[in-house]
UniProtKB/TrEMBL annotation, chain A:
GO molecular function: ABC-type maltose transporter activity; ATP binding; ATP hydrolysis activity
SMART domains noted in UniProt: AAA
Family from the record: Belongs to the ABC transporter superfamily.
Family matches, as InterPro entries: AAA+_ATPase, ABC_transporter-like_ATP-bd, ABC_transporter-like_CS, ABC_transpr_MalK-like, ABC_transpr_MalK/UgpC-like, Mo/tungstate-bd_C_term_dom, NA-bd_OB-fold, P-loop_NTPase
Matching PANTHER family: MALTODEXTRIN IMPORT ATP-BINDING PROTEIN MSMX, MALTOSE_MALTODEXTRIN IMPORT ATP-BINDING PROTEIN MALK
Source organism: Ruegeria denitrificans
Protein name: Maltose/maltodextrin import ATP-binding protein MalK
Ranges of residues in domain ABC transporter: 4-234
UniProtKB/TrEMBL annotation, chain B:
Species, as recorded: Ruegeria denitrificans
Family: Belongs to the binding-protein-dependent transport system permease family.
GN (gene name): araQ_1
ABC transmembrane type-1 domain: residues covered: 74-265
Name of the protein described by the UniProt record: L-arabinose transport system permease protein AraQ
GO CC annotations, alphabetized: plasma membrane
Biological processes, Gene Ontology terms: transmembrane transport
Coiled-coil spans in chain: none
Major place of residence: membrane
Recorded topology in the membrane: Multi-pass membrane protein
PANTHER family the record matches: ABC TRANSPORTER PERMEASE PROTEIN MG189-RELATED, ABC TRANSPORTER PERMEASE PROTEIN MG189-RELATED-RELATED
Locations listed in the record: Cell membrane
Keyword field: Cell membrane, Membrane, Transmembrane, Transmembrane helix, Transport
InterPro entries: MetI-like (IPR000515), MetI-like_sf (IPR035906)
Amino acid sequence: MTALMLSNVNKSFGNVHVLKDITLEVEEGEFVVFVGPSGCGKSTLLRVIAGLEDASSGEINIGGQQVNLVPPSKRGIAMVFQSYALYPHLSVRGNMTLALKQEKQSKAMIEERVSIASRMLNLEPYLDRYPSELSGGQRQRVAIGRAIVRKPKLFLFDEPLSNLDAALRMNTRIEIANLHRALDASMIYVTHDQTEAMTLADKIVVLRDGRVEQIGSPMELYNNPANQFVAGFLGSPSMNFLPEGLLGDGGQNTIGIRPEDLFLADDGPLAARVSHVEKLGGDTNVIAKVHDQSVTARLFGQHAISEGQELRFTYAAEKAYRFDADGQRLR
Amino acid sequence: MNKARQNPFNTAAMHGALILYTLIALFPVFVILINSFKTRRAIFREPLALPSADSFSLIGYETVMKQGDFFLYFQNSMIVTVASLFFVLLFGAMAAYALSEYQFRGNLLMGLYLALGIMIPIRIGTVAILEMMVATGLVNTLWALILVYTAQGLPLAVFILSEFMRQVSDDLKNAGRIDGLSEYTIFFRLVLPLVRPAMATVAVFNMIPIWNDLWFPLILAPAEETKTLTLGSQVFIGQFVTDWNAVLSALSMAILPVLVLYVIFSRQLIRGITSGAVK
Ligand SMILES: Nc1ncnc2c1ncn2[C@@H]1O[C@H](COP(=O)(O)OP(=O)(O)O)[C@@H](O)[C@H]1O
Ligand SMILES: [Mg+2]
């Protein structure tokens, strides 16, 4: 069964068309990441799925039931917000139990769910604290706990890590991945960070300007991007794009080469002048100018390269992608 | 952390300025209070002197107690002020929430219409209001005053509160909706507590003019049993002779409840600012 099915969902605010013909499916137990630059409509899409905004047109199915007219609390979803959105007047326990109390669940059952969730998230010592007495990472866990106790059919995460510092972000990312395995629940996760998308997702949905650009597993998208946008968005450092003319083919198309697919070669076709070197120990990132185009090469290991040096690069033709003037992939 | 705070000279200067301001603000109250305890002659001879054994007198308070039904006036003023504030805050907050939270046709126009009242003094409509009150039989009831003051306070309340409510996090309200809270619960339990400082501001702004108003009590509710304190005190101010002892005593007593209300509201204000609300 599919956990979520969107068909031709559109959303406009006045005459601003924010979501355009979104069609996608989330399978039961799948971890799906919506990724795209800021302002592309990810949060709006999530709010439409949650029922916090009405879709202007199109159909939304959750767990096989059409929910266009069902209020958020009855859709079988739980949401974790970027700003945590904990209730300031309730303790951690109160925050976690509110929804169950609204559903008039039995005391024993509420107690059991809270104790399971708080054990999972190491929240036991904080159950009687108030949100203002917690650190950012703890608040984040309470927000996740508030979602878990409801046992929703579908979890919705809206950029849950963006308010955490880098070290905590990494840990929480792993925790969320573990949580997904432990709960075996369907999850939708929104982020603008391609690393989070690549590391967490079973399936990635790339969005741009309210449109779905491509859907697929992380490696499918990485190895086989449908267009220049997807190719450039996934991967870090991102793909190099060079006009075909520079490579001596004379066409009007664009050639895309991933940084790890560029190699040093004395007789290579790309003559470059090094403008910056990042020595990471395991890798060396060389940023160089080919004519006026900036190119990044990711060389394995350590290299004695310095700024201003003249180098030549080569690449394997089968690893190069070709895009037409509209950014569509040519095969 | 903050260097300016720790510098003793700056601290002294800051406290000096605040103390000076407090003295200036409290001076008229102080003069009224001391003079209310003096004989009429002493009031005019040395208005700034403290009451001494010679000049001490409770004659003003005695007159006030004997004349008319002072406690009833007091009670009337209190009922009118508290009820008006209650309705201004309740309806003002609800209207502000509707305007800031829900998108509906005419939202902007409605907001402008409600804000228009800030610029148009309600007294311009006195005649029409009086006719309406006569027609509905509300003349000489406290309801007449409560309704008028509620109408008078609403525009500013809606204007200020809707500005503050726009700043309440959408995520918080949405979390409530997902957890199955009704819109009323979201409004009363999540949003109102977060705009409490703004509510206190609105309350303080509205309270003083209502408490002090003479115009509408005189026109809409001049009957003995509905007189407010301000109107009741007017008997001591004559065209030719003014009983200053009584006026000052009445004023002194009138200050007290306002002071109490003010302390209540301002504590809310400070608590709201310092509670470190989680956004
Ligand atoms: N309530 C709203 N009214 C009008 N425009 C909105 C509203 N919510 C979002 N938008 C617009 O929709 C676009 C997408 O917003 P959003 O979904 O928040 O993007 P993302 O989460 O991908 O950064 C933005 O251009 C934003 O200005
Ligand atoms: Mg967003």
